[in-house]
# Entry
Amino acid sequence: METSPAKNAQEGLNGRYRGVLLAYFLRRTESYSEAEDLVQDVFVRLLDTAEEIEPRDANAYIFTVASNLLKDRHRRNAVRARFRASSEQVDGVRSDLLTPERIAISRSEVEKASAALGEISVRSREIFTLYRFEGISQREIADRFGISVSAVEKHVARALVHLNKRLNN
Amino acid sequence: MEPDLSPQDQIDEDAAIWCARIFGHSSESFDSEAFQQWIADDDAHRHAFDSMARTWRQLEGFEPSLAEPRSDDTTEELEEGLDAPVEAPLFDRRRALIAATVAGLLAAGGYTYVSGRSSVHETDIGRGSLVKLDDGSQVALDGATRVRYASDGSSRTVWLDGGRALFEVAHDPDRPFSVHAGDTVVVAVGTSFSVERLHDQIRANLVSGSVDVVDNGATGGVKRYRLQNSGDMFIAQDDGSTPIIATGGSDLSWTGGVLNFDNESLPVTIERVNRYSTLQIVLAPGLEGERVSGIFKAGETEEFIAAACELLNLRAERSGTTVRLVPATP
# Structure
């Protein structure tokens, strides 16, 4: 049975990188579909070039492609956002000043989020806070509280479900 | 596994678990094949995931505050069957962690001097801290803040000499807890509130419980006010005018290293930003009436300067460690 080296290389890359690329894009885009599209775009680009990539350079190459695709997408979105910003105000502040880094959550959302966090149990709130805001791993939280990792995951998930109900419903 | 969850609740919970694995520092490795299979199983899965991810992102920049309500009475059913009880009180751990966060963000600084039943606590510019008084009350200090404390068998007294402090007062009805800031005295029994000294005013902000505010600087004699709704704000100007009582909500974001301004006067925002940086901002005359909204990380003074310049059409004139904000067009 014969397959072309290019196809093999492509499948190998696909298997190795699909998961990390998907996570990479999910963290940086607005929706699953958008992330999935970008993953496809990366592999489309790689299809033409797979033969030329040295395996040891693959990592750097693939993430350069991914990062460039993301930049293009953000640039297009930014142009759209500027059109909107000219007519919209966010909480009385000019929205073109509200960069995602500076403000991802508006003041009314701060209040909603505070209230929602106050409505869940102390334990869930504590664990969610450590995980979401302090960047502490589930393993570490589990050790600190003397509970299992899956119990930590459940606390985080239930806190998030509750916040989701309050912020997005 | 969770027979009591409705199908939609189960989907939401699964979506939240995936979201936490993808976005957080999870120790579970992300199994992208299982995730994509789950997404492909049902359109509702994808919708739930997108919604959960949006909520996760929305929380960026939000810092849970030191004194969130303790809702031990609600949704405890979430706890059931999840895990065994832990002995140490969680709220204390949480406080300790938040104290560590404040210290970590701002670098531990200042000093504490204790003598008998009195103590002095002072923080440097850019360095908040959390101190525990001898009665068990806790005080979170903003940067560039100084408090003195003394207690005896009948009273507990704090003097706020400058800056801002959040008090979580240990309940002790026999020994009222009072905070003196200029001509203003805030009296509490067991509650949580903050007091701030600004160059031309004193503010007291109620978080929970109730406090009495005594204004000794009012023209026409001593006046007494009561703050009893969470979020009530008392503002006394130094010029002796009638104090304002507003219902602004309690802003505790500073205890998490975030400065949150909601249509705040420019001089006040600058005074707060200056507590976090050796780079000191001064304001050219005539700009005192300007107002600012926005959320800034404490210590990111350059960000604030850039935003203020852009928003209010100002220019920054630099000289050594001083930045003077002047109108961009003369």
